[in-house]
């Protein structure tokens, strides 16, 4: 049986292979998913103030790092893909107060070198599900974050986006009216499982994702000295419903805020 930690290097290799493709696709503004579901609600939970020092975990091409800087924060951003960091630097103008660096989130020694008690906030946008071992990161965050500081992160909703999940759309004639309903068929929610996924159509190789239940995330942060004090399950605006399957009444993601105590 393959251990999750054994997949870390292969996971990194695959992100190196697709980094430029993802950067080209996301661009400076990212996609609708991030613009409508992730960005506004993450900002709401973060409550950034101009004096804040913020750690952007698995920052990708730096889209949100630059937004944090625009809000007045001093940002340290890292990713384990050197190609992603190269692209982030190319997209970042001198006006942004951002330090980019290459760090593997499973390397607690490298993480702690960023500065114990340095950060007011930490954020990870749609990234923790890509990390094979979260324990070193979360334990390190408790040392990196100031007292009463917060960690905000988003992940695909593990209740509805399980491995092998199926999207279902059914049309039914109800009293002379055609009604279309969307639903989800999920499998093995309670079973932790690594799997391969295509995040953007056309990427050359699938990347690894690591399914974990909500209980796993709660217990990991609770045992590391955090409390949950914010949680949002955003969905797309129904008014934009074009009749195709989309995430209107079923949340595609969930966003957490944990506070250091």
From TrEMBL:
GO BP term, pick one: methylation
Stretches of the chain forming a coiled coil according to its record: none
Molecular function in Gene Ontology: methyltransferase activity
Keywords linked to the UniProt accession: Methyltransferase, Transferase
Domain Methyltransferase type: 55-153
Alphabetized CDD domains for the sequence: AdoMet_MTases
InterPro entries attached to this UniProt entry: Methyltransf_11, SAM-dependent_MTases_sf
PANTHER family in the record: TRANS-ACONITATE 2-METHYLTRANSFERASE-RELATED (PTHR43861)
Protein name per the record: Methyltransferase domain-containing protein
Organism of this sequence: Paenibacillus vandeheii
